[in-house]
Amino acid sequence: MSGLLTLGRLARADFLERIRRHSFLVTLGFTVFSAYMFLPANHSTYATLNLSGHRGIYNSAWVGSLVAMLSVTFLALAGFYLVKNAIERDRRTGVGQILAATPLSTPAYLFAKLASNFAVLASMVAVLVVTAAVMQLVRGEDTHIAWIPLVAPFLTVTLPVMALVAALAVGFEAVPKLRGGLGNVVYFFFWMATLSLSATHPGRGTDILGSRVIITQMQEACVRAFPDYRIGEMALGFNVKSQGVWDLQTFVWQGAVWPPAQLATRALYLALALAIPLLAALIFDRFDARAPEARVRARKARRGASAGEPAAIATGTRPAAVEVAHLAPVRGSGGARSRLGGLIAAELRITLKGLSRWWLLVVLILTVLALFVPLAGVKQFVVPIALVWPVLRWSPMGTREREFRTDALLFSAPRPVTRLLVAQWVAGAALALLVSAGALVRFATTGEWASFAALIVAVGFIPSLALAFGIWSGSGKLFEVLYLMLWYMGPMNRIPALDFVGVTQPASGAGPLLSFLLAGALLSALAVAGRRRQLAR
User: Fold this and answer.
1) Structural domain of 53
2) Are residues 138 and 245 in the same domain?
3) pLDDT at 199 over 80
4) Average pLDDT in the 428-438 region?
5) Do 182 and 85 share a structural domain?
6) Spatial separation of the C-alpha atoms in residues 35 and 530, rounded to whole Å
7) For residue 344, which of 145, 159, 201, 423 is within the disulfide window of CB 3.0 to 4.6 Å?
8) Between β-strands 235-240 and 46-50, what pairing exists: parallel, antiparallel or unpaired?
9) Residue 466: which residues within 8 A CB-CB, separation 6 or more?
């Protein structure tokens, strides 16, 4: 009983701390706004659920189901990044090391993080329920609020997914390779694959988002009201009409009836959410900073033993020779070390430091493909893949100074705003040029000047985006998430307004190119303003 009480106290304290953050309030505000957008009035320019010219009347059943289905897609992504910092915050602040010295077990600690993660996400779902009820009254098509049909879709569709998202956030933070930027990227592609799997293979086991049962019964009700409607003709999501407005015929739908087998599947996600912390406890290092070093020493010991070296030398128990450090003489502000070129070279070394041969091999393969595959393939596949490959190299831009606590040293140098930001921007642009060099050469030699210009704009836009987001958020997570979303909706789904790499050129015209050119300039100005704000503190 005392263990459960301790777990509850930890979860409660963590929950209260997180709901006071600006990131929670921003996400909550955007969630409420999304619920408003999910329920457009009839005769609007867009529709969110269109059954071939029909939809249900906005009663509690339809409103609750529609908001639950659409919000679970958004919260499955945004919610993960919102709660994936609980363990890292304890590690960074030193609280984790204190807790590790107590009798609190590792599974209990991870379960407390799972509980607090779920509480944060569940509180957002509760706000969504209230917002859906308010929107039902605002739309006024049926002003009688029936709470059971309104709340039931959130219980069956949204909350099981939120429990799974909360558990995955704990699992990712417990795995050393996934607790940082790589985990953010991996989860984004997992989310994208989940959406695709649910849309293309909506079977019982693959319908993770839980919309199949509801949509099937909505369509059956539409057939009863309009016999000419053919099941399967539907569009879920924001469908904007190019001209005029949607004039949808409405019918009454009283809510979904969930078969026991489908409810059991939803309960299975809850069981999986409880199992993930148990598995993560087998990997979690319990804030032992020496764990990685111990593994390195063990590997050296095995190598030393195989080479016939004494174990004491391989494990580092024998004192190593002390090397004398020699400091270069300090020169004036006009010396070689203080020139912008030297600073750019240093930033390039930092950006490219630690790149493996496999990483560079992928860049080489992309360069060769860009030179020899058909132009359509270069635009649609090679260029987008090339410009998403270095995302984890761009995301630390603007955050390294604070992360490694070198800001006081760097900001005291001459002209810390212009010189340092220009050097970082040039390093990021040089990396973009490196991975897209083959495509640029191909576009230039074939006369594809519109695509060439769009790619050059992307080369400047990406580091500006990374710097602005990194400086103002203090973390690379915001850039990683929003850049991947922009990449997925623009180049991969060929939405011209979001195509920052020129996949849709020249059909989309010069509008997107000029928009991203202007956006890059504005983001650069925002980065300068953010850096001046940091200096003023």
Assistant:
1) 2-281
2) yes
3) no
4) 94
5) yes
6) 32
7) 423
8) antiparallel
9) 394, 395, 397, 398, 428, 476, 479, 483
- For residue range 210-240, list pLDDT tens digits in order: 788 899 999 999 999 999 998 888 888 888 8
**Is residue 167 domain-shared with residue 45, that is, in the same domain?**
yes
* Domain stop point among 281, 298, 320: 281
Question: If you average pLDDT over every residue of the chain, what do you get?
Answer: 84
Average pLDDT, stretch 515-525?
Answer: 93
Question: Residue 299: its pLDDT value, please?
Answer: 53
Q: Is the pLDDT of residue 458 over 80?
A: yes
Measured between its terminal Cα atoms, the distance across the chain in Å is 47
Per-residue pLDDT at 185 exceeds 50? yes
Q: How many domains does the chain have?
A: 2
Type of residue at 113: K
Dist. CA 383–CA 367, nearest whole Å:
9
Considering only CA atoms, give the Rg of the chain: 27
pLDDT band at 509 (very low <50, low <70, confident <90, very high): low
Whether residue 112 is found in the same domain as residue 194: yes
Strands (E), 168-293: 235-240, 249-251
Q: Is residue 289 part of a domain?
A: no
Quick check: is 529 in a domain?
yes
In a domain, 308, yes or no: no
CB 183 within 8 A of CB 175: yes
Residue 326 lies in a domain: no
Domain match, 342 and 273 both: no
Classify each residue of 6-33 as buried b or exposed e, where b means 16 or more C-beta atoms within 10 Å of its C-beta.
Answer: bbeebbeebbeebeeeebbeebbeebbe
Task: For strands 249-251 and 235-240, give the pairing.
Answer: unpaired
Asked if the model's pLDDT at residue 396 lies above 50, the reply is yes
Identify whether the C-beta of residue 369 lies closer than 8 Å to the C-beta of residue 438. yes
Rounded Cα distance, 391 and 182, in Å = 9
262 and 340 co-located in one domain: no
CB 50 within 8 A of CB 234: yes
Instruction: Assess whether 53 and 174 both reside in one domain.
Output: yes
pLDDT at res. 22: 78
Query: What would the pLDDT profile of 297-327 be if each residue is shown by its tens digit?
Result: 555 555 555 555 444 434 444 444 555 555 5
User: For residue 208, which amino acid is it?
Assistant: I
Sign of CA dihedral 13, 15, 16, 21: positive
> Quick one: three-class SS letters along 42-83?
CCCCEEEEECCCEEECCCHHHHHHHHHHHHHHHHHHHHHHHH
In this prediction, what percent of the chain has a pLDDT beyond 70? 88
What is the predicted pLDDT for the residue at 239? 82
